[in-house]
Amino acid sequence: MLLLLTNDDGIHAPGLEILARAAQRYGDVLVVAPDTERSGVSHAITLYKPLRLREIRPGWTACDGTPTDCVYLALHHLGIKPDLVLSGINPGPNLGHDVLYSGTVAGALEGAHWGVPSIAISHCSSKEAEMPRLELPIAELLPALFAIARKSQGTINVNLPPIDRQPWKGVVATRLGQRYYSNEVIARNDPRGRHYFWIGGAEVTMPDIAGSDCNAIRDGLVSVTPLGDDLTRTSDIAHIAEQLETASLLTLPVTADLESLIPLGTELS
Ligand code: MN
């Protein structure tokens, strides 16, 4: 079995090393990962600057791009044909809304986009020093996660409760919950007197939603959430169609002359 590993914390991150050590028990591991921290880059792909690859040790290739770039180049340039893509282990949760910002999750989604079953793994603790303690529990979990990912043929998003709350109480299938950060912006001056801003508050609220990934972590359970890449809110399609029909927009010719266009600011009923 060939396992392609990536992350968004950079190729030197402890979480990647631990994931590689756990994964090596089950197959050959090849790593293509960003050369530095890329957390929060989501599914960004680099189109307007060149990318460079550098093998830093056998089987470990650093890329000066995003996790998406890494998986893309691994599959389409390096010719790696993995059975699975693993992304992580991220030091910090990827629960609820986090998945929209996460580079860790995007690395896995990119694998699934090209037909490779993929797994994103995050540790719900920011204590990176505790990463080594995850090796054995992860190694124990991996065979089950491999089987789940292969069957679902998509992405599975795995969140692990803090290792200092072991023993974990079990593993559950979940849906995305909701996770809200405080809307804090820290404004300061740099040493040359110019303003800079730092986004991100520490305070987090997670509404109690039965069956959610957030609840699972709060209950000390490993959370496994299947993710797709279809963001369509299907419940709104009918009302949009209705509004368009009411506004007679369905019959509007594409090459409408300006007279027939609805003036800007007209309220659609
Ligand atoms: Mn990260």
Can you characterise this structure?
With 269 residues, the protein is α/β, with parallel strands linked by helices. The protein has a single domain (2-178, 209-234), classed as Stationary-phase Survival Protein Sure Homolog, Chain: A. The chain has helices at residues 14-23, 67-76, 98-101, 103-113, 135-152, 213-218, 237-246; strands spanning 2-6, 28-34, 53-57, 60-63, 84-91, 118-123, 155-160, 171-173, 180-181, 185-189, 195-199, 204-205, 222-227. Strands 3-4-2-1-5-6-7-13-8 form a nine-stranded mixed sheet, with helices on both faces. A two-stranded antiparallel sheet has the order 9-12. It has a two-stranded antiparallel sheet with strand order 10-11. β10 (185-189) and β11 form a beta hairpin. The longest helix is centred in the middle third of the chain and has 18 residues, at 135-152. The protein starts with a strand and ends in a 23-residue tail after the last helix. The model has no long low-confidence stretch (mean pLDDT 93). Residues 8-9, 39, 90, 104 line the site of manganese (II) ion (MN).
